[in-house]
């Protein structure tokens, strides 16, 4: 079991470009969560998805950010028209159920230049 | 203050000593979890303690939970240089009384263990 796989590990985008971050959950996990970690801070919840459904997107910025978890394939976090303030580490986690905690990926470090 | 605040912000000890980190939170929770993060890496789940539990052990880790004080502590005994990392507590407040997966993290404690 390869764990939660995120790619790319590092992503550099110029202001105004789009960033696409991918997350493949652990085998058998159907719950996916995205978190953002700004420098020197803890993780902040962004969105919780199950297959083809957004369950809770209360942590997502209202504009430019979207997430999906299609029936087939990885979960995608999409950031349109990136700005310097979007520079952060974005982590994905998956779970089978919450009794055993969550498995986090290694994150994607987005740098906007 | 935020949900899931750790104390101290930074802790520096010698190998072999014990390290204690504290976490306070504000709302009712279903469970509280501790994670470790090595510099520039992802999070590793260490231990989960449910709201009806008071203490839990896993190897050199001991976690306590006091729901009346809304606080938890993580004790690492006989620390090693390899324990150097940031440690985060995270609370799962749940939805409808069941665990939900929406974790609220504190800002972490940076632990440095000197050889």
Order of helices and strands of chain A: EEEEEEEEEEE
Mass-distribution shape of chain A: globular
Count, helices of chain B: 0
Strand proportion of chain A, as a percent range, falls in over 45%
The residue-averaged pLDDT of chain B reads 89
Task: Give a count of the beta strands of chain A, DSSP E runs of length 2 or more.
Answer: 11
Q: How many β-strand runs of chain B?
A: 11
Helix content of chain B: under 10%
List keywords for this structure.
heterodimer, A: 113 residues, mainly beta, seven-stranded mixed beta sheet, four-stranded antiparallel beta sheet, 11 strands, B: 115 residues, six-stranded mixed beta sheet, five-stranded antiparallel beta sheet, globular
Please write out the topology.
The complex is a heterodimer of chains A (113) and B (115).
Chain A: E1 5-7, E2 10-13, E3 19-24, E4 31-37, E5 43-50, E6 53-56, E7 65-68, E8 75-79, E9 88-95, E10 103-104, E11 108-112
Parallel strand pairs in A: 2-11
Antiparallel strand pairs in A: 1-3, 3-8, 4-5, 4-9, 5-6, 7-8, 9-10, 9-11
Chain B: E1 5-7, E2 10-14, E3 19-24, E4 31-37, E5 43-50, E6 55-58, E7 61-66, E8 71-76, E9 85-92, E10 103-105, E11 109-114
Characterise the protein shown here.
The complex is a heterodimer of chains A (113) and B (115). Chain A is mainly β. Chain A is built from no helices and eleven strands. In chain A, a hairpin with a 6-residue loop joins strand 7 and strand 8. Chain A starts with a strand and ends with a strand. In chain B, a hairpin with a 2-residue loop joins strand 6 (55-58) and strand 7 (61-66). In chain B, the strands form two sheets. In chain B, strands 2, 4, 5, 9, 10 and 11 form a six-stranded mixed beta sheet that branches. In chain B, strands 1-3-8-7-6 form a five-stranded antiparallel beta sheet, with no helix packed on it. Chain B contains no helices and eleven strands. The relative contact order of chain B is 0.34. The interface between A and B is medium-sized, with 28 and 27 residues.
